[in-house]
């Protein structure tokens, strides 16, 4: 507990809009999307409200307080260990009935609590009218309506937070049926003296009963076999009441409480089928759905290319002019080299970020927020089974097209370690926005748009083949898909803009300094002929194995920081400008280089996140896998070029 | 269409007769009788709001014998379930719904 800054945790089921609400309060801190399980780590923020500071914590979505998925464990750790001063239970109002099961479970904690009915607009569209007064009475906690995506309800929430905290209002847990309560009381009395009580005795007893078949149960057996025997006896009694396992009896009790409250507080007019539902059925149709899926992705990349390519040409012109002017003014001096390095760095940064990166981020944001990712997972599940994974990996791969780093982080939504390992190893092969940009810029611009499209499909093929190989190495029968399909909704413009800005700012902050600094450094190195040493060292590999000009060796060093840097710096290294690149290297060499750089190693940030998420061994494995794939494919291209 | 729906042409199962969720025709209302499979799967389905007694409708299926799109009418949620999992949920038809 912290006297000066009370801790408020946001708990709710996946995709209920916790992060959106959190961001509405805290400014942009947490990544949001319309896909269950996007928040996998928690975000902290300080909020100033009427002169008082509050710490708010956004936790991953959880369906219940029994830990079986990794993100649920994060929630439990926070709720149990950090003892929050207040729980804000965010509820998707359009899924009120199901969501109330978690609310009922949270009430068992008897911590101060507020329920936020989020997505009220969606609920109203579904024909639901919710009596919040009645709901407050039934639950015994304040209920606030909100539409977080439009920033509505935040003022009411903070007012309520202030009130609940100052009055120290604690709710009462709702009671189950008497015969079950009797058994819970029994376990409560059985709890040993030294038993770690969480929240209160009743809650602890319920959790002990529910932990049947979970790891905790073994812990009981080892530490207090006598308690375990007694506990098992009570479980059998509970089980006998309904002829289900005890944990299901408890879950059914909550289910019935939730249903009862829902029936008392919510009326549903059976609204006519809305246009959006008809559209939803169409995009999930086995045939039209797939056609639509292909059209969406084809259209997306076509659009990016259509916007990006002319814009790129136009943006590159002034920088090239400045570079030529510098060359004329200063001749072959150190000054000229450094200045033109600087100009090339800035020019490269501007010409990539604006034409391609921004449209790609905007379109990705649109797909995420509309709820389309879960639909793609549904449609592609069978295909993913062919390559040894299942549909839940699809959204992660799609996220990877934006940036590999959040995609690796989001693999936590996969239940099995094996699926997670394979997905993590494959993600670095997905060309992220920055890499796509370079591929579009270089390959499409210099070799033609069909080469870029071909490269893309080839890239996907590589992933599919690798996945098949990996899934044969790591054998295991996949548990099958269980994925909630969220409602389709209109993406909020503000949300997408915020997200784009967030990613863009990150990219600019991280990549531009390296790009510009690296470009200048490369000029300096080349002026003092140091790059020759680097190139000579790497020469057997670069020229001997890959058949590339020796001078490209040094760019690979930068490529480890960010892959796109290798490609950008090749102009610098080869001493040519953008348009005349093909005078310095052949088309085959360009293709070999692009392929090699695209695959050769996960970029530094991706590698760091793999290390953090999966450990050192997996990070090494990832590097090894990337390097060998890059070498094999580059050699194949060289070979193909020799034959044809 | 191009996908076969196993049960579409056959008669609805008799009242009181049970079958697997993986076998039911689209658009008809069924009630969950039992969830087979290990406790892990069972708990996950419970957490998603799938309980005994809930009413279900098959909304659609993905191409190439892909997952099923199941709507839980009791809690008004939609979930994609792989066929293996749908084969572990036992249901019975509900004739007089609404």
Largest sheet of chain A: 6 strands, mixed
What value does the average pLDDT of chain A take? 83
Low-confidence residue ranges of chain B: 1-10
Name the structural class of chain A.
alpha/beta
User: What integer is the average pLDDT of chain B?
Assistant: 82
- Beta-strand percentage range of chain B: 25-35%
Kindly summarize this structure in a few lines.
The complex is a heterodimer of chains A (644) and B (98). Chain A has 644 residues and is an alpha/beta fold. Chain A contains 28 helices and 9 strands.
Task: Give structural attributes.
heterodimer; A: 644 residues; alpha/beta; Rossmann fold; Helix Hairpins; 3 domains; six-stranded mixed β-sheet; two-stranded antiparallel ribbon; 9 strands; 67% helix; elongated; B: 98 residues; alpha+beta; SH3 type barrels; 2 helices; 6 strands; 13% helix; 32% strand; globular; disordered N terminus
Describe this structure in words.
- The complex is a heterodimer of chains A (644) and B (98).
- Chain A has helices at 18-26, 70-81, 96-107, 120-125, 132-139, 154-167, 178-190, 201-210, 215-223, 225-242, 246-265, 275-283, 288-330, 334-370, 372-386, 393-402, 404-410, 417-426, 433-447, 449-473, 493-527, 530-545, 553-561, 563-574, 581-584, 587-599, 604-614, 616-643, and strands at residues 7-12, 43-49, 52-58, 86-92, 113-118, 128-130, 143-145, 266-268, 482-484.
- Chain A is α/β, with parallel strands linked by helices.
- Chain A has 3 domains: 7-167, Rossmann fold, CATH 3.40.50; 178-268, Orthogonal Bundle (Helix Hairpins), CATH 1.10.287; 288-643, no CATH class.
- The longest helix of chain A has 43 residues, at 288-330.
- The model of chain A has no long low-confidence stretch (mean pLDDT 83).
- Chain B has 98 residues and is an alpha+beta fold.
- Chain B has 2 helices and 6 strands, in the order ββαβββαβ.
- Mean pLDDT of chain B is 82; it is low at 1-10.
- The A-B interface holds A 63-64, 66, 68, 94-95, 97-98, 101, 126, 212-213, 244-245, 247-248, 251-252, 255, 259, 281, 284-287, 289-290, 374, 377-383, 390-391, 479-485 and B 1-3, 39-49, 51-52, 59-67, 69, 72, 74-85.
- Strand 9 (482-484) of chain A pairs antiparallel with strand 5 (77-81) of chain B, so a sheet runs across the interface.
């Amino acid at each position: 507990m912290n006297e000066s800054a009370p801790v408020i945790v946001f708990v709710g089921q996946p995709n209920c809009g916790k992060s959106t609400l959190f961001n509405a309060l805290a400014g942009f801190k947490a990544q949001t999307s319309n896909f269950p399980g996007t928040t996998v780590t928690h975000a902290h923020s300080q909020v100033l409200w009427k002169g008082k500071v509050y710490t708010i914590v956004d936790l991953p979505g959880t369906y219940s307080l029994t830990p079986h998925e990794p993100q649920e464990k994060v929630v439990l750790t926070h709720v149990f260990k950090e003892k929050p001063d207040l729980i804000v239970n965010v509820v998707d109002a359009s899924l009120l009935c199901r969501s109330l099961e978690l609310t009922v479970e949270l009430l068992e904690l008897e911590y101060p609590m507020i329920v936020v009915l989020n997505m009220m607009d969606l609920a109203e569209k579904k024909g639901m009218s919710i009596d919040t007064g009645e709901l407050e009475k039934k639950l015994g906690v304040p209920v606030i309506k909100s539409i977080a995506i439009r920033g509505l309800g935040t003022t009411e929430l903070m007012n309520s937070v202030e009130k609940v905290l100052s009055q120290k209002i604690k709710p009462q847990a709702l009671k189950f049926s008497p015969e079950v309560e009797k058994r819970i009381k029994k376990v409560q009395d059985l709890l040993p003296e030294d038993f770690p009580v969480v929240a209160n005795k009743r809650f602890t007893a319920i959790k002990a009963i529910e932990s049947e078949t979970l790891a905790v149960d073994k812990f009981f057996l080892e530490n207090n076999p006598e308690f375990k025997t007694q506990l098992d006896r009570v479980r059998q009694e509970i089980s006998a009441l309904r002829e289900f396992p005890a944990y299901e009896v408890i879950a059914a009790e909550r289910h019935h409480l939730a249903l009862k409250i829902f029936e008392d507080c919510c009326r549903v007019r059976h609204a006519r089928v809305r246009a959006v539902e008809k559209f939803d059925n169409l995009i999930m149709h086995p045939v039209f759905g797939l056609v639509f899926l292909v059209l969406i992705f084809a259209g997306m990349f076509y659009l990016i290319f259509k916007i990006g390519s002319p814009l790129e040409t136009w943006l590159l012109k002034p920088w090239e002019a400045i570079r030529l002017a510098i060359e004329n003014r200063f001749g072959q001096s150190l000054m000229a080299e450094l200045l033109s390095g600087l100009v090339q760095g800035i020019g490269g940064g501007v010409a990539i970020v604006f034409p391609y990166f921004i449209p790609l981020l905007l379109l990705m944001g649109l797909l995420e927020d509309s709820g389309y990712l879960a639909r793609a997972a549904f449609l592609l599940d069978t295909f993913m089974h062919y390559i040894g994974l299942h549909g839940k990996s699809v959204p992660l791969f799609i996220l990877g097209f934006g940036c590999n780093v959040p995609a690796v982080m989001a693999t936590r939504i996969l239940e099995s370690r094996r699926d997670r390992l394979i997905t993590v190893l494959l993600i670095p092969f997905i060309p992220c926005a920055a890499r796509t940009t370079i591929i579009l810029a270089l390959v499409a611009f210099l070799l033609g748009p069909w080469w870029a499209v071909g490269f893309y499909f080839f890239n996907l093929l590589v992933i599919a083949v690798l996945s098949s190989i990996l899934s044969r190495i790591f054998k295991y029968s996949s548990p099958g898909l269980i994925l909630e399909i969220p409602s389709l909704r209109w993406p909020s413009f503000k949300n997408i803009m915020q997200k784009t800005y967030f990613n863009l700012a990150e990219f600019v902050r991280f990549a531009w300094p390296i790009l510009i600094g690296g470009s200048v450094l490369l000029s300096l190195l080349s002026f003092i002929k140091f790059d020759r040493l680097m190139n000579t060292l790497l020469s057997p590999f670069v020229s001997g194995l890959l058949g590339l000009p020796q001078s490209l060796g040094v760019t690979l060093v930068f490529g480890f920081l960010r892959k796109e840097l290798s490609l950008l710096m090749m102009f610098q290294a080869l001493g040519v400008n953008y348009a005349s690149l093909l005078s310095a290297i052949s088309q085959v060499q360009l293709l070999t280089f692009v392929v090699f750089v695209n695959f050769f190693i996960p970029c530094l940030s991706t590698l760091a996140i793999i290390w953090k998420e999966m450990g050192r061994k997996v990070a090494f494995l990832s590097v090894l896998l990337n390097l060998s794939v890059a070498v094999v494919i580059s050699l194949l291209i060289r070979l193909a070029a020799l034959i044809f | 269409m191009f996908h076969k729906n196993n049960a579409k042409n056959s008669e609805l199962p008799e009242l009181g007769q049970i079958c697997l969720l993986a076998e039911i025709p689209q658009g008809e209302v069924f009630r969950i009788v039992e969830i087979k499979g290990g406790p892990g799967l069972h708990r996950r389905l419970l957490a998603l709001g799938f309980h005994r007694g809930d009413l279900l409708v098959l909304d659609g299926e993905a191409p190439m014998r892909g997952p099923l799109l199941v709507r839980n009418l009791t809690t008004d949620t939609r979930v994609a379930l792989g066929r293996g999992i749908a084969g572990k949920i036992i249901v019975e038809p509900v004739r007089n719904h609404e």
